[in-house]
């Protein structure tokens, strides 16, 4: 009976954690149709993705204190209701700017599901059970980018892009009902918890003063921004330049997700023989080389569909090694402020991801070049951070295989 109860708990928590990835990826095959219907361009429509990233970045910092102050379920309900309302309002948009604003609000809502699901795992499961539950959640989150664009491609081809938001809205309604009737309140509200800015900012400043944190958090976040550059420009590159169908684009996106997920899983095995520090160094060097060759090919117009897919797969494979190890190294020095450090790193990742997607949208949508240009810039800036940042780390706290975080 306990196993059955745990299964339903993990299923609900996994669904909550997957709402954000589904919201990011499911509408990507509709960029061309959205631009046509709203009399805009694909580059401008891509700003609705950027606004979603900004919303996630801000929301990461917002919900942590709220969950500690008011318990887990009330902020979760608020976020889901906000998400549902903004999803259905997306059906009525007549202008691309309305979509950009509503996607920001939708992201603020979806943050509640991601942060609450992680917090509730810590509350509801023992220390021995938690790693297995987190692994299940991470697998759901990792698989979401494979399923979402493929499902979105078929849905958009059959019914139109608006039905993606109908689907997401009803998905959130089911989650709200499951949360109300099946999820227990796992944390009692703390009336003494302060929501004043000063103590919260003091915690964040303590984290930011740690050289190992800011060195590896920057590496993780900057290289991750290359992923967002790919995500935001991929609809134009594959569907407009290479004239791939909506469903074909979904399958390409799924295939490239396998490269990222596969390398992150392989990373767990490699950690038996190499330290996180070594893996980050070599994977980052490889990423710099691959992205530079990709850029040279793009500038000289030597690319075709298959070469483009190949170069992106190599970049994402390197990211699958860099991200979990850099994240683990960034969090390794902390025990007391681990929550603040995690929230800061998440906010930094999404903030730089938003910046990368905006940068890509500023360039011509008739060229592949902007994608490898942003990817290459991100890889080389991350390498510079690694070379400079290590000089300030007095005593490096090594991350063990157990503390390395699964990429997602």
Automatic annotation (TrEMBL):
Species this chain originates from: Pedobacter jamesrossensis
Superkingdom, natural source: Bacteria
PROSITE patterns, A to Z: MFS
Pfam family, one: MFS_1
Domain Major facilitator superfamily (MFS) profile, first and last residues per copy: 9-397
Localisation per UniProt entry: Cell membrane
Membrane topology, as annotated: Multi-pass membrane protein
Protein name, as recorded: Multidrug effflux MFS transporter
InterPro entries per the UniProt record, alphabetical: Efflux_drug-R_Bcr/CmlA, MFS, MFS_dom, MFS_trans_sf
Protein keywords: Cell membrane, Membrane, Transmembrane, Transmembrane helix, Transport
Family from the record: Belongs to the major facilitator superfamily. Bcr/CmlA family.
Membrane-spanning intervals of the chain: 7-24, 44-63, 75-94, 100-121, 133-156, 162-181, 213-231, 251-270, 279-299, 305-331, 343-363, 369-389
């Amino acid at each position: 009976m306990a196993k059955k109860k745990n299964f339903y708990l993990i299923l609900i928590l996994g669904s909550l954690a997957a709402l954000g990835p589904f919201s990011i990826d499911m509408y990507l095959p509709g960029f061309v149709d959205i631009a046509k219907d709203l009399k805009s361009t694909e580059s401008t429509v891509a700003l609705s993705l950027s606004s979603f990233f900004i919303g996630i970045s801000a929301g990461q910092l917002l919900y942590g204190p709220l969950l500690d102050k008011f318990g887990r379920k009330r902020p979760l309900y608020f976020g889901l209701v906000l998400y549902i309302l903004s999803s259905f309002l997306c059906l009525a948009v007549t202008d691309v700017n309305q979509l950009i604003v509503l996607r920001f609000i939708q992201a603020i809502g979806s943050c509640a599901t991601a942060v609450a699901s992680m917090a509730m795992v810590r509350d509801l499961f023992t220390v021995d059970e938690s790693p297995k539950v987190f692994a299940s959640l991470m697998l759901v989150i990792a698989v979401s980018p494979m399923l979402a664009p493929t499902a979105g491609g078929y849905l958009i081809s059959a019914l139109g892009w608006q039905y993606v938001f109908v689907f997401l809205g009803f998905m959130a309604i089911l989650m709200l009902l499951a949360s109300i009737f099946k999820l227990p309140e796992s944390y009692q509200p703390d009336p003494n918890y302060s929501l004043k800015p000063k103590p919260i900012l003091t915690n964040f400043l303590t984290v930011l003063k740690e050289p190992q944190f800011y060195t590896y958090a920057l590496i993780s976040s900057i290289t991750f921004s290359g992923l967002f550059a790919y995500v935001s420009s991929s609809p134009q590159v594959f569907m407009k330049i290479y004239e791939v169908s909506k469903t074909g684009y979904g399958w390409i996106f799924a295939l490239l997700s396998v490269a990222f997920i596969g390398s992150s899983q392989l990373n767990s095995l490699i950690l038996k023989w190499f330290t996180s520090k070594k893996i980050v160094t070599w994977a980052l060097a490889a990423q710099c080389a691959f992205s530079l060759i990709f850029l040279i090919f793009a500038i000289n117009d030597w690319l075709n569909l298959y070469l483009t897919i190949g170069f992106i797969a190599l970049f994402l494979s390197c990211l699958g090694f860099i991200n979990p190890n850099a994240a683990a190294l960034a969090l390794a020095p902390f025990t007391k402020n681990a929550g603040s450090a995690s929230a800061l790193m998440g906010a930094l990742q999404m903030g730089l991801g938003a910046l990368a997607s905006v940068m890509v949208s500023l360039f011509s949508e008739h060229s592949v070049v902007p994608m490898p240009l942003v990817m290459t810039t991100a890889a080389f800036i991350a390498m510079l951070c690694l070379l400079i940042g290590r000089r300030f780390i007095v005593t490096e706290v090594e991350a063990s295989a157990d503390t390395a975080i699964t990429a997602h």
